[in-house]
Amino acid sequence: MNTVVERDLELRLVLSPERGIPVPARLTYRTDDPYAVHITFHIGSETPVEWTFARELLVEGVFRPCGHGDVRIWPTKVAGRGVLCVALSSPDGDALLEAPSAAVSAWVERTLRIVPPGTESGRLGIDDGLTELLAATAADDLWLRDPWPSDGTADGEG
Fold this sequence. Notes:
Layout: E1 4-16, E2 19-30, E3 36-41, E4 49-54, H1 55-61, E5 66-68, E6 71-78, E7 81-90, E8 93-100, H2 101-114, H3 120-124, H4 126-134, H5 138-144
Antiparallel strand pairs: 1-2, 1-8, 2-3, 3-4, 5-6, 6-7, 7-8
């Protein structure tokens, strides 16, 4: 069974230290993709902008600076309130967003209760898939038979 944990919230796109604009966003976690979190930004365009990155990065970013490259996350205080800074980089540009720390932390905690850290691989069904893939079938007998028996007898003879 697939479970989805979502949370709508308003982020702040930082334009300068004194100026920012609100950006509606949705956090999504799906148990069929247990290592990833998805953030969808609704920026008024025809299609929303979606970023996907490791859940572990967000879990760690709630407590301390982490990440490198395209996604970096760190906790801080702005005007006396706790926020998570999320820095995103792409070929199209860079963005610094502030997210309400308490709301993100509560959402992350919900995902951790549904799929505790270290149990993600069990959600992928890899073992079941490998078992099915490697299971012998009737057709395997045809492939396993030697098409040219070494003793000179025809296949199926004595």
